[in-house]
Design brief:
By secondary structure, this protein is of the alpha+beta class. 22% of the residues lie in helices and 32% in strands. A six-stranded antiparallel sheet has the order 1-2-6-5-4-3, sandwiched between helices.
Length: 179
C-alpha cells in the first residue's frame, strides 16, 4: 500500500508508538489509542503464522474529571481497567505473572497475561529508554493480546443482561433549602 507498509510486522506496538509520537508532536497532552490488526510471528517449526492482535497504549495526563486529580499522569491501573473491560466482554479471566523476557518493557512494572497457563499477551510500562528515544512522556503504558486465540477460547454463548434502569451519571448534586 505504501513504503511504510513493506514489511510483515511482528507486533502492533511500533505503530502505536509512532501514532503517540505524532499526536504529542501536534500538541496533544494525552493520548489513549488502540489497534486491532494482523501480525506475523515465526513458529517453533520455522513457519510464519498470521495472527490477530489487539493492543492499546496510554500516555500523558488525565483529562479534567471529577474523579481524578488534574495533571496526574495515566498509570498502570488505568490501562488495566480498560483491558479488564475488553476481557470482561468476551467472558474470560486472565491471570498475571511477572514478565522478564521483553526488553522493551520496564522490569518490575510489566506482566505476562495468561489464559489456562498459556501466554496470550503482556501489560505494563514501556521502558524508560524507549520512551526517551522517541521523546515520549516518562510513563507510557501498553498491552498487547493474541486476540484471535482469546476469541477462539471464549464461551460461545453469551447471556444477555438488560440495560440499566437508571442511566449513568457523572455528577449528582443534592441541595437542601428552606421554604
Amino acid at each position: 500500500i505504501s513504503k511504510d507498509m513493506g514489511f510483515m510486522r511482528p507486533s502492533l506496538l511500533p505503530g502505536l508508538i509512532q501514532s503517540v509520537v505524532k499526536n504529542f508532536n501536534n500538541g496533544q497532552k494525552r493520548v489513549k489509542i488502540f489497534e486491532c490488526g494482523n501480525v506475523f510471528i515465526r513458529s517453533k517449526q520455522g513457519k510464519v503464522e498470521e495472527k490477530t492482535s489487539f493492543a492499546a497504549m496510554v500516555a500523558g495526563t488525565h483529562e479534567n474529571s471529577v474523579w481524578t486529580q488534574t495533571g496526574k499522569g495515566y498509570d498502570y491501573f488505568d490501562l488495566k481497567g480498560a483491558l479488564n473491560s475488553v476481557i470482561g466482554q468476551i467472558k474470560l479471566k486472565l491471570t498475571e505473572q511477572p514478565d522478564l523476557k521483553r526488553p522493551f518493557m520496564l522490569k518490575g512494572k510489566s506482566v505476562e497475561l495468561l489464559e489456562n497457563g498459556q501466554v496470550c499477551g503482556y501489560l505494563g510500562e514501556l521502558s524508560t529508554s524507549i520512551a526517551s528515544q522517541y521523546e515520549l512522556p516518562r510513563h507510557c503504558f501498553v498491552f498487547e493480546l493474541d486476540f484471535g486465540r482469546l476469541t477462539r477460547i471464549a464461551p460461545r454463548y453469551v447471556r444477555f443482561s438488560s440495560l440499566p434502569k437508571f442511566p449513568e451519571t457523572y455528577r449528582d448534586i443534592s441541595i437542601l433549602i428552606d421554604k
